[in-house]
Amino acid sequence: MRSLTKINEINPNSSIKPNNAKDEQNNLGLGGVGRSTKHESADKHVSGEAIYIDDRLEAVGQLHAAVGQSSVAHANIKSIDLSAVKAAEGVVSVITVEDVPGHTDIGAVFPGDPLLALGKVEFVGQAIFAVAATSHDLARRAVQLAKIEYDELPAVLTVKDALAQNNFVRPPFTMSRGESDQAITNAEHQLKGDIKIGGQEHFYLEGQISTAEPTEDGGMIVFTSSQHPSEVQKLVAEVLDIPFNKVVVDTRRMGGAFGGKETQAAQWACIASLLANITKQAVKFKLSRSDDMCMTGKRHPFENNYHVGFDSKGQIKGINITVNGNCGYSPDLSNAIVDRAMFHSDNAYFLDQSTVIGNRCKLNTVSHTAFRGFGGPQGMMTIEMVMDDIARHLGKDPLEVRKINLYGKGERNVTHYDQKVEHNKLNELITKLEVSSNYQARRLDIMEFNKQNSILKKGLALTPVKFGISFTVQHLNQAGALVHIYTDGTIHLNHGGTEMGQGLFTKVAQIVAEEFQVNVDTVGVSATRTDKVPNTSPTAASSGTDLNGKAAQAAAKTIKARLIKYVSDKYNVSEEEVVFCNNQVFIGKQSDSQLNEGDISAVQTFTFAEIVQQAYMDRISLSSTGYYKTPKIHFDRVTGKGRPFFYYATGASVSEVLIDTLTGEYKLLRVDILQDVGHSLNPAIDLGQIEGGFIQGMGWLTTEELVWNEQGRLLSNNAATYKIPAISDAPVDFRVELVPDDPNREHTIYNSKAVGEPPLMLAMSVWSALKDAIASVGDYKTSPVLDTPATPERVLWAVEAIKSQAENMSQKVEQANQ
Amino acid sequence: MPASSIRFLLNNEIVTLDNIDPNITLLQYLRENRFDKGTKEGCASGDCGACTVVVAELSLVNSSELTYKSINACITFAGSIHGKQLITVEHLKQGAKLHHVQQSLVDNHASQCGFCTPGFVMSSFALHKKTHKPNREEVVEALAGNLCRCTGYRSIIDAAMESSENAEEDSFAQHYRQTVKQLNDLAQLPSAQLSCAGRDYFSPKSIDELAQRLIDKPNSTLVAGGTDLALSVTQNLATIERLVYLGNVVELNNIVETADEVIIGSGVPYSQFTPVLEKNYPELGEMIERIGSMQVRNNGTLGGNIGNASPIGDMPPALIALGAQMTLQCGDKVRKIAVEDYFTAYKQTLLEKSEFIKDIFIPKAQPGKILKLYKISKRLDDDISAVLAAIFIEVENNEVKTLRISFGGMAGIPMRAKQCEAALLAKPFTQENIAAAQQALTLDFKPMSDVRASDSYRMKVAQNLLLKCYLELQNRKIETRVVNYA
Ligand SMILES: Cc1cc2nc3c(=O)[nH]c(=O)nc-3n(C[C@H](O)[C@H](O)[C@H](O)COP(=O)(O)OP(=O)(O)OC[C@H]3O[C@@H](n4cnc5c(N)ncnc54)[C@H](O)[C@@H]3O)c2cc1C
Ligand code: FES
Ligand code: FES
Questions:
Q1: Is A710 designated active site?
Q2: Measured between beta carbons, which residues in chain A are less than 8 angstroms from residue B374?
Q3: Residue A808 forms contact with B (CB below 8 Å)
């Protein structure tokens, strides 16, 4: 007979240790929620012991994959000669689309993404064939030896051309309310403008990678760096033409993802699986950095425009906005991404009479994909431009115009897609930040500084963010979890969410620990696996914790209910008299004060592990699944109306910048952020998401420039030419606060709010502050046009444009005076 | 004396490299040959720092002292580790106890996805070996070559600043004497060599050996820091048959000061020659701090920066403006030329077969002469210049007495702006004459558009920098640089 672990060796009281002094002051309850628990892998990160796919032990005979890429943007393939590739050193197998037994299209939502080119290529870098070789280097060298002849076709390489030719990956879509044209015409003032918003490379530090190992019955186990293991499972099965239940996909952690591994991790997993299936060896496919940059999609570049009518206070009366997303060559997730840009074309402002049109332009570039914010940021940029433009037109501080346009309470509180903005605290939040950041006094200081300095100029801006939380594709808003308790009292936790650094595993472990009132290190987190929790959604849309936290809580609650019932039956007490607390279970009559004072004489107590063992011996199931689906949400795409979002996450930021009007160089001097995260599950993790999201957003709007040449080849295809923020780009003065004690009114997990994506858009204040500094050159009379990324070059041209406008104006004044 | 094999200390263990491809990088060696997977690959091009390891070597001034340097393992050829101690992230934790730089990152919640973290640990470790209590500026300088896509850096900066407090002596301090002895023993070995699969790697110890080797094997490729050359292997998949490593050639690793010159050996890395140049030309010191990253400056050399003949190398324009000279040696023949004359056309130089750059001669600061330098790049730190302007000027009685202006990024080679100089030289130093000089720049240069900047931006900025230089010299107190503004 199996003997159980001796638990009297475990001292329950010794293990309650607040993570740090700050927590002690907060006097939080036991369990896990609300504490700044360290990341579950923190110790392994710093020691180098955390295992990423590339660090896994290699199977004997493991092969390495690489793919041959298209060198042209649009062409029919005339001929492919792979003889030199096949003969190259180390090459074991070479495949083309002909060798795919099952599906050849791996489009995530709509078809259009061939696994390997099907007679035709649609962008530079498209995969045409794949090899497996004995080393990564040999595979990379071999693919260069192919001889491919093309019949070139005309390539569409600009949004302008795509629009002119109605070249779309999905049909256009409009959301509207009232008569915007009329409202614009009737308004006191009108303005028009347009803006080009650059895309963004994800630059996850760990590039795309998968290892596939053949299993028996023609199956496959795939270790992948993917935000969406279930999708990888489905696609690998379909490509291999085997049932889903023969494929297992395992993701322990990713070295960053940011949306770039939502759909676009699948192709590499599928190719590795195909090669593994053919060679009957394990195959690893790791993209080199520049291949990764050329072959995977980015944040969508957008080209947007607006026509607005407003009153003399600056309040919008009517507006038309068109957002044109550059989707690249295939639909991928673009339909939902452009939808989200349209949903967020209001950002935090009430757009009275409004029309928002969204175009999904098809270009012969790589297919652009999810990236933190998912189109939302590109949608918001237009309306933030409108705010600045109105302010300059009326000679007001942009903050005043922003405030007067905010959603109201009780009135002016319905979005252009008919969702009511409930529990709206934006006004209070902004006012609080305006005070805490000392906005008004700094505004005066800056005016003074700008008078004194002819070369360096300062700028200041406050911008809000209101971001809708939920997948706008309704069925994705579901999640599953699996919780086991073992007989030593340790807990095994698994759910459909993936860990990409955002701290999801930590937060969900905290939630489970909270349920059982045990230490969080009692809860062992485990790799996301399709054979543990099936049919999962991608970890995306900031919803990871909202969904999986609730599912895991449901699983824990099921087991806990069984344990309570069991104990109450066994010890003949009511269920209320069974209390989980401090790694123990208290049985019998008790008051809160007794518990608090540790006076446990009146009751019988067991350690958590003892109760678990008793339950096991009495044949109580110690394992459960849990399931959750988000309530309330719906959206009708025909009418363009509904409630796509469960709730909104809000925040605001103030940025102060310094620019050099001779070179366009700039520096971010100070940032103040106030972000609403509801009742924070883990303040340290939330703070990290806010700071990291902000800096990532700043990179998107400033130095991160994607450059394609006239043949459609990406020139900024490595880390030497594509510049994400470095450590010195972080502001010296960086003040981030969470809105204190403001639980989410919706019943989210512990009334927390999602925090993954919203902070990225806080960086719009950097862009607006740059424009503020530039505007100072023309005495704030003109609103600078500043496309993004606002590289030093763009800043200098904007300064030059303002200077020459100012000169023209003064010439006109002089002429008039003569 | 027969050549030794490549030998080094991996933490405390002496390791011999045999039978490995001389083109292999230190990162490949660690991950693929040793299966030490703690050191990560993020870019394989020296830009992200995920592969940062630390090298300890005997100090040049005192062979009983060690200096610790962070370097990028991904662009360091494995052979260059000969005679040194290699420390990787695996060596920091002792039993279950994290090193204090590691613990501090944990305490500050400074890892999210964790992929960049081993690199930050190692950069931070090297910093703490140099500076007990680093301030923010020192932290930022030491970590500028480590990219993190997740955290936004604030927590990492806090961690690196905090971690030395209450720190106990670490295992490296405990083994210090033993390490010094082991490295001194390795230093006795003759010149080292590695050959495999028809390729070889030779690491001469003396300049005579070097010169002879290049005569014997004229198709050899010189490698110093490798921060440029290694990219041709990791990025362009080139193979290099014969590598000759300059890092152990004693005569190339000297800095000598005479009455009016600083003589820097071509093999001296930036981090070693920066102080003496900074002392003479403060703006040069500041500019060098913006060349690459700490890791790049710990390995990269002056000889390599000139040797790669890039039109966007940062030192050549400064050296040209200063009127620096250099010696080229072939066999036992040495010739001295102006740095300015070295570059003949895009990626073409005066260097002959079997010849190498020996020393660079830089005039010391002289009263009245000022070196103004401007590095313009998309990102302030660790970015290649779009334009680099170097202006060496002497103004007396408001007249330009001497002047040399040189630019990087404006032509196929680093080049003087002679028409522009002519517009100012021996003329009153006035805004009108600056305007004329700005105009003259268009005669000197027809810059290119590329991924870093457009032709028109390059020209506009170059012109504006002349004005900026003028304004700065007219009024020394005026704030004109965002870089210096904190
Ligand atoms: C991330 C990163 C950032 C960088 N940033 C900058 C920057 O900001 N500014 C900048 O200027 N450069 C930069 N560089 C480029 C490079 O680091 C420098 O040019 C460096 O000085 C090269 O020196 P090295 O010793 O590493 O050269 P190596 O790579 O060893 O050699 C470079 C070339 O010079 C030749 N060579 C080396 N020594 C000699 C000699 N003694 N005689 C003749 N030929 C020789 C070699 O054969 C080779 O062709 C950067 C590089 C990286 C990887
Ligand atoms: S792997 Fe990026 S610097 Fe070495
Ligand atoms: S923690 Fe993810 S890159 Fe730094």
A1: no
A2: 663
A3: no
**What's B29's DSSP letter?**
I
Quote ipTM for the complex.
Answer: 0.97
DSSP-derived secondary structure for A44-61: HHHHT-PPPGGGSPPPTT
Fold for the domain defined by B6-90+174-245? Ubiquitin-like (UB roll) (3.10.20)
Distance CA A527, CA A497 (A): 9
Å from CA of B26 to ligand 1 middle: 17
Query: Which strands sit side by side in the sheet containing A283-286, from one edge to the other?
Result: A91-95, A127-133, A63-69, A283-286, A209-214, A220-224, A247-251, A528-529
Ligand nearest to the CA of B381: 1
The whole-angstrom separation of Cα A168 and Cα A797 is: 32
CATH number of the domain enclosing A255:
3.90.1170.50
**Which residues constitute the domain of residue A725?**
302-472+637-809
> Is residue A380 within a helix (H) or strand (E), and if so which, with residue range?
helix A376-394
What per-residue string of b and e applies to A66-92 under the rule 16 or more CB within 10 Å gives b? bbbbbbbbbbebeebebeebeebebbb
CA-nearest residue, atom 2 of ligand 1 = B292
Give pLDDT tens digits along chain B (486 positions): 678 899 999 999 999 998 899 999 999 999 999 999 999 999 999 999 999 999 999 987 788 999 999 999 999 999 999 999 999 999 999 999 999 999 999 999 999 999 999 999 999 999 999 998 999 999 999 999 999 999 999 999 999 998 766 677 899 999 999 999 999 999 999 999 999 988 999 999 999 999 999 999 999 999 999 999 999 999 999 999 999 999 999 999 999 999 999 999 999 999 999 999 999 999 999 999 999 999 999 999 999 999 999 999 999 999 999 999 999 999 999 999 999 999 999 999 999 999 999 999 999 999 999 999 999 999 999 999 999 999 999 999 999 999 999 999 999 999 999 999 999 999 999 999 999 999 999 999 999 999 999 999 999 999 999 999 999 999 888 889 998 775
Q: Does domain B370-474 have CATH number 3.30.390.50?
A: yes
A87 and A67 in one domain? yes
> Distance (Å, rounded) from C-alpha A420 to C-alpha A648?
10
Nearest CA in chain B to A733: B486
CATH of B251-363, one of 3.40.50.620, 2.40.128.50, 3.30.70.1230, 3.30.465.10: 3.30.465.10
Interface size between A and B, measured as CB pairs under 8 A: 260
Q: Give the 3-state secondary structure of residue B393.
A: strand
User: A195 lies in a domain?
Assistant: no
Q: Who among A256, A502, A718 is closest to B149 (CB)?
A: A256
Neighbours of A166 (CB within 10 A): 11
CATH architecture of residue range(s) B93-169: Orthogonal Bundle (1.10)
Could you tell me if A574 and A701 lie in one domain? no
For residue B454, list chain A residues with Cβ-Cβ distance below 8 A.
793
Q: How far apart are CA A479 and CA A492, in angstroms?
A: 17
Name the A residues in 418-477 with CB < 8 Å from any B CB.
Answer: 453, 455-456
Q: Please state the domain extents for chain B.
A: 6-90+174-245, 93-169, 251-363, 370-474
- Whichever domain contains A688, its CATH number is 3.30.365.10
